[in-house]
Design a protein that fits this description.
The chain is an alpha/beta fold and 136 residues long. The chain has one domain: 5'-nuclease (Rossmann fold). It is 54% helix and 12% strand. The chain contains seven helices and five strands, in the order E-H-H-E-H-H-E-H-H-E-H-E. A five-stranded parallel sheet has the order 3-2-1-4-5. Helix 5 packs across helix 6. The longest helix has 13 residues. The mean pLDDT is 92.
């Protein structure tokens, strides 16, 4: 089972600030050994936007931070695709309008991946059967 990390999970893991339960750590370890952990390119867009608006502070400039995360973590980067862009507009059920969340959900759905998050809105969307989610 490949896990697609929500942006906040990526930050927590890469910055070493994750406060995860042992069961969550075990799930991440299992995913890493099996298929790996995926990070969507939209997460790097979101990080750059948040940093530009001074809503987050990363340990390095976002471009270098991205390079290091991808080189050293074993994460794979999921590209933005036209299919995911279209899917993000046509998602079933009720979901909010946040473009990054919608692209993450669409990417997970199209690839048959599980979206790892703590976002209550995404977790509720998953509980409705619209995307596989894992609460970390």
């Amino acid at each position: 089972m490949r896990l697609l990390l929500d942006t906040h999970i990526l930050i927590w893991l890469a910055e070493g600030t994750a406060d995860l339960a042992p069961t969550s750590v075990a799930r991440l370890d299992d995913a890493t050994r099996d298929d790996g952990l995926a990070v969507s390119a939209i997460s790097f867009w979101e990080l750059a936007m948040l940093q530009a608006r001074q809503r987050i502070t990363l340990s390095l400039p976002v471009q270098r931070w991205r390079e290091i995360v991808l080189e050293t973590s074993g994460f794979i980067e999921a590209p933005l695709t036209g299919d995911a862009a279209i899917e993000s507009v046509n998602l079933p059920g009720e979901i909010h309008d946040d473009p990054a969340d919608r692209m993450l959900i669409a990417t997970a759905r199209l690839n048959g991946w599980t979206l790892a998050t703590r976002d209550d809105r995404i977790l509720s969307y998953g509980a409705a059967g619209n995307v596989e989610v894992l609460r970390l």
